[in-house]
Task: inverse folding
C-alpha cells in the first residue's frame, strides 16, 4: 500500500530506519491495550528499543551514536506513536534531550561523554524531573521546592517531583532544585539509590503507560561535579518537537482505523460500505485537511531548525508547530470517532485510547496560551523602534 506520509522519507538510510520502526510499532500496538488498562510501564517495549539501537540514535557519532537530525527524529517518533503513544512520548523525552545536549553543549563535556557511552554500551536513558505539585510546570517559571544544600564534597537534595516520565526504568536522571544560599535554581545529575523512592501516583485519563510517577528524594548526596551549571548555546528548544510528532502519530493511527472501518463496514440496508456516503467522504476530507496541514507544519519547521544558524529566532515558529499539530491531531481523532460511530467507544478497539491519549498533548510544553502570547510578542516586536 502506498501511503502519502511516506513522502517525508528523504533517503534510503531513513527508509531503513522507518521500516524498522514500523515493525516495532506494530508489536507495540499489540501490547498497548494491556499496558493502558493496567497503567503498567512497558518494559518490554523499551527492551525492544534498546535491542534495535534506537536509544543511541541522537547520540553524537564521536561517542558511538548515529547523530540523527531533528527531522529524522520526528519522523521516527511519529512512527512509534502510531503503535503506542505512551511509549513514543516517554522515549521521546530521552531522545530529544540527548539531541538538545548535543546541539547546545550545555553540560560539562566529561559528564556528557560518560552519559553517551552508557547509552551506547548499556542502553541507559535520561530525563529531567522538574515539575512539582506546588510550582506546577517548570515552563511557567515556578520556583522548585526541592532544595539542594551544600555539604562537604557536594550537595544534599530533598524534595518530591511529579510527572516524572520514565521513572520506573531510569538509573540516573536530572533534578531541578533550589539553592537557598544562592537564591537560584540549578540542575543536578542524580544516580538512583536507597534515598530515592518511586511513589506510583500515575493513574490518568490518557498516556497511562509513560510511568510518570512521583519521585521522592530524601537527603540524596550528589557529588559537586554533578551540578550541571548551564553553559553552551541556545538552540531554541527544537528538541521539543518530539512531542507534537507523537500526537501526530496517534492521529494518523486513528485516521487509518477510520478509513479501514469506512471501507469495510456496510449496514444491511446499503449495497456499498459507508465510505460511499457523501457525508462520510466529507468527514474523511476534513481529516485530511487537518492531518496534512499538521505534517507540513511539523516537517518544514524541523527541517528549518536543522538548517538554521540562528535557531533561537525559530522559537515562536517551533511553538506554533506544537500548537497546530497537537490541536489538529485532536480534531482528526474526533472526526475519526464520528465516522466510526458508537463502536468507537468500545474498549475492545484502539480508537477510544487514541481519543484519550491525544488530549494529553494540550498539557505538554509549550502550552497553547504561552505559544499565542509568544506569537503576539513577536508580532508586536516588529513595530518597536
Result:
Amino acid at each position: 500500500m502506498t501511503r502519502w506520509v511516506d513522502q517525508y522519507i528523504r533517503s534510503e538510510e531513513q527508509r531503513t530506519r522507518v521500516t524498522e520502526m514500523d515493525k516495532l510499532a506494530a508489536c507495540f500496538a499489540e501490547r498497548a491495550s494491556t499496558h493502558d488498562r493496567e497503567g503498567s510501564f512497558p518494559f518490554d517495549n523499551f527492551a525492544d528499543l534498546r535491542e534495535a539501537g534506537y536509544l543511541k540514535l541522537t547520540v553524537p557519532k564521536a561517542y558511538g551514536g548515529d547523530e540523527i537530525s531533528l527531522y529524522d527524529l520526528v519522523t521516527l517518533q511519529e512512527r512509534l506513536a502510531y503503535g503506542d503513544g505512551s511509549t513514543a512520548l516517554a522515549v521521546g523525552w530521552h531522545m530529544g534531550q540527548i539531541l538538545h545536549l548535543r546541539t547546545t553543549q550545555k553540560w560539562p563535556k566529561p559528564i556528557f561523554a560518560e552519559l553517551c557511552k552508557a547509552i551506547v554500551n548499556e542502553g541507559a536513558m535520561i530525563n529531567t524531573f522538574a515539575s512539582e505539585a506546588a510550582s506546577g510546570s517548570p515552563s511557567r517559571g515556578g520556583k522548585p521546592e526541592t532544595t539542594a544544600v551544600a555539604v562537604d564534597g557536594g550537595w544534599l537534595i530533598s524534595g518530591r517531583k511529579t510527572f516524572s516520565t520514565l521513572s520506573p526504568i531510569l538509573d540516573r536522571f536530572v533534578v531541578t532544585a533550589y539553592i537557598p544560599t544562592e537564591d537560584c535554581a540549578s540542575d543536578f545529575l542524580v544516580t538512583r539509590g536507597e534515598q530515592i523512592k518511586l511513589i506510583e501516583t500515575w493513574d490518568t485519563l490518557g498516556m497511562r503507560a509513560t510511568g510518570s510517577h512521583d519521585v521522592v528524594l530524601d537527603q540524596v548526596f550528589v557529588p559537586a561535579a554533578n551540578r550541571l551549571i548551564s553553559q553552551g548555546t541556545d538552540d531554541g528548544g527544537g528538541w521539543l518537537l518530539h512531542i507534537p510528532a507523537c500526537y501526530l502519530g496517534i492521529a494518523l493511527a486513528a485516521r487509518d482505523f477510520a478509513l479501514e472501518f469506512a471501507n469495510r463496514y456496510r449496514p444491511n440496508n446499503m449495497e456499498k460500505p459507508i465510505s460511499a456516503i457523501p457525508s462520510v467522504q466529507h468527514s474523511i476530507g476534513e481529516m485530511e485537511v487537518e492531518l496534512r496541514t499538521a505534517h507540513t507544519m511539523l516537517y518544514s519547521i524541523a527541517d528549518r531548525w536543522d538548517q538554521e544558524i540562528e535557531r533561537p529566532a525559530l522559537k515562536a515558529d517551533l511553538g506554533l508547530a506544537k500548537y497546530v499539530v497537537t490541536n489538529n491531531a485532536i480534531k482528526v481523532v474526533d472526526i475519526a470517532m464520528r465516522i466510526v460511530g458508537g463502536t468507537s467507544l468500545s474498549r475492545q478497539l484502539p480508537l477510544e485510547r487514541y481519543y484519550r491519549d491525544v488530549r494529553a498533548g494540550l498539557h505538554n510544553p509549550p502550552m497553547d496560551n504561552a505559544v499565542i502570547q509568544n506569537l503576539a510578542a513577536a508580532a508586536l516586536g516588529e513595530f518597536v523602534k
Notes: The longest strand covers residues 154-164.
